[in-house]
Amino acid sequence: MGWWLRGGRGGEPRRGVGVLAALGCVLALGACSVPGAGGAAAGQELPGGRILRPVGPERVAEHGRTTLRVLADSGEREFLKRLVARFEKKYPNVRVEVETKASTDFFKTIVTTMSGEHPPDLVQGNQGYGVDGQLVRAGLLRPLDDVSHAYGWDLDHPGGTTDQLRWTPDGTLFGSGSLYGISQSNEYIGVFYNRSKLSELGIRPPHSWAEFTAGLRKAKEAGELPLQLGNADQYPAEQLLGTIQAQKVPVNESRAWINGVPGTTFATAGNREAARELRGWARKGYLGTGYNGVSADDAVSKFTAGKGVFMIAGSWNAPAVGGKLGDDAGFTVPRTADGRTVAAGAFGLPWHISAKSDATDAAVAFLGMMQSRTGAQAMADAGRLPVVTDGVDMPDRLGRQQAATGKRLLLGDGQTYYFDWASHSMLATIGSATQDLLTGRLSVGAYLRRIERDRAGFLAEQEAKTRGRGGGS
Amino acid sequence: MTASRARLRAWARRQYWPAYLYLLPGAVVYVLFVLRPLLMTAWISLFDWDGLTLGTWVGPDNYTALLTDPRLREALLHSLVFLFFYALVPVAAGLVLTALMVRVRIRGLGVFRALLFVPQVLSTVVVAVSWRWIYDPDGPLNGLLRAVGLDALARSWLGDNATALPAVGLIGSWVMCGLCLVLFLAGALRIPRELFEAARLDGAGPVREFRTVIVPALRGETGLALVLTVTQALRNFDIVWNTTAGGPGHSTTVPSVFLYQDAFVSREVGDAAAIGIALTLLTLTVCGLITRVLREREG
């Protein structure tokens, strides 16, 4: 039965020769060079030349028939379908070729795809060290400072909103330096609520944090599940922590920690208070039982089926929630005690132009249209929340609520980003640690320490790498 | 020196060289798509590499880091638990079921066999999603428990630190059971009728028959089943990832979860390669031991 149960009998010398021959072949084929050698070629000049003013149809037409290759997350399909149609109409010599991949596959393959010989001209990345940092470090992205200036993006985004797309050219410092991407998508974590449940319980839609927490208490007393949570995928509870933490810690302090500013730590008084409150919610039964075994998608279906009065989740769940609950669905970001609107959140997946693109003008024109009101309306029509909301028709009541809150967030520069941007492994670290915090297997102190240890290790590694390169690129 | 060279020449003369041409296509594919990636992985495991920019030689550092990482040690323990659920349970269940099916003539055996094999054919993601639903706090398993008054037992099977690991393990048992049964049934068909008759004439009951006829006759199949299931248990990733992602906390992590995270999330490709190589060596060793033990008993 099978070769593995039989010994080679009487075939010893032949086998020896076979092994030797195979090894020889392998060594010849293996080409044992240092992995990554001869890879990226980071150009000194701006690929495609400097952009001085918005790229119009005449300038794009000068290039003749052009194919613009776009690689995006599958969540962008509806948006791109609408935008591409408008773009091809305005720029008739350009044909846009869109390829989309499901998120998990997308993030796995994006970095290697971009390092290939003929990468797509326009591509989505992800903020933080995991994807964008890698792409910048390998010199695969075209800086967009000139484009941003020509189109006035800087003026559209006040304060530090675009810092999440800025890097030093060696990709080691996050949050300052050149602009490498842009996005029309605005995403943040907020509180969904079920209007009919609220009126049953006599709770008014919460405007402030105090009203919200009072609502949780009241729902619990009435025997309802206060908060629907599905945390099997580990990231949703991180969003809960981020929501509580945004109430207690100044936005800049959170961002400084995520950006890796020396001297910052996760074990601050505010974070401790936030973690303690989250643990308290779990202990008081606000989250029900079994949340660590329920997937995020299942939690949304449970919420829309009437299980749970509130649900803390990303604004991008609006189509799923609104589609089932209709006008019963409400959404808000409770204001802080001093009246600010702050939330864990950021731009949606950012767009980048490949440094190897030979269709830079068309790519710039595409981003230009994406960031305009045309792009914003296409985003809204696809059921998502655009960054630009003035003069944009949102499809339903939930969308209008999200747009109003989103505008307040951007104007007040109140998005704290996400903790998992802080290091390569933070998503996994904070995900499993928060599960343990909720069940009480980790104390608040140990929880904060475990997260800080992950980031400290990562920063030390980054520093060693920078030093090893002598600061050059 | 000369003696060995003479022997080599004599050996070369005895060969019918064109025969090797027939081996060539298979050998090329094997070298290109199995050996070459394997050796490249081994080579990469000696570097600190992000998958893009120039790697740095670190020698055996990735391996020492791997040996001292407490998370990986914990993950390896979970793998041992999975060995029980993925390999021992299905093989034992398969043997017992085979013995039953040999004794009792079952109508529509082909249908049952096909049905039991279905989990093997299904994509593991489909399997994981179905079981997530079964184990859900409001799912059918808890519904059943509550219906018979065992409310105290109902829980979030995948979300509870105490039950997550066995719950995921049982999914593996369910998947592998069909494979073992189909293998064993095919083997049992080849057992001569006379053996059963002789055993029964000697007064052997079902237990005796199981021990003296079925188990020895199915040794080859058992070896094959163990090798397949053990490999599956040790490299187990898809079911874990799609049900618990290693959680809650670290309670269901396996080495492949860290391999995935290192390779595709934190992009420490050297570390990931080291885990991959270590896991390959471990699997080969365990499978080698299994075949050796079974072969010795054969001889």
TrEMBL record, chain A:
Family annotation (PROSITE patterns): PROKAR_LIPOPROTEIN
Q: What is the protein's given name?
A: Sugar ABC transporter substrate-binding protein
Which PANTHER family does this entry report, sorted A to Z?
ARABINOSE-BINDING PROTEIN-RELATED, BLR3389 PROTEIN
Matching Pfam families, A to Z?
A: SBP_bac_1 (PF01547)
UniProtKB/TrEMBL annotation, chain B:
Query: What cellular component terms from Gene Ontology apply here?
Result: plasma membrane
Alphabetical list of PROSITE patterns matching this protein: ABC_TM1
What membrane topology is given? Multi-pass membrane protein
**Subcellular location(s) of the protein:** Cell membrane
Q: Which residues cross the membrane?
A: 20-44, 76-102, 114-134, 164-186, 272-294
> Which keywords describe this protein according to UniProt?
Cell membrane, Membrane, Transmembrane, Transmembrane helix, Transport
Q: What is its main location?
A: membrane
Under CDD domains, the record lists:
TM_PBP2
GO BP annotations of the record are: transmembrane transport
**Where in this chain does the record put each ABC transmembrane type-1 domain?**
76-290
Family assignment from sequence similarity: Belongs to the binding-protein-dependent transport system permease family.
Please identify the protein, giving its name as recorded. Answer: Sugar ABC transporter permease
In its UniProt entry, the species of origin is given as Streptomyces cacaoi
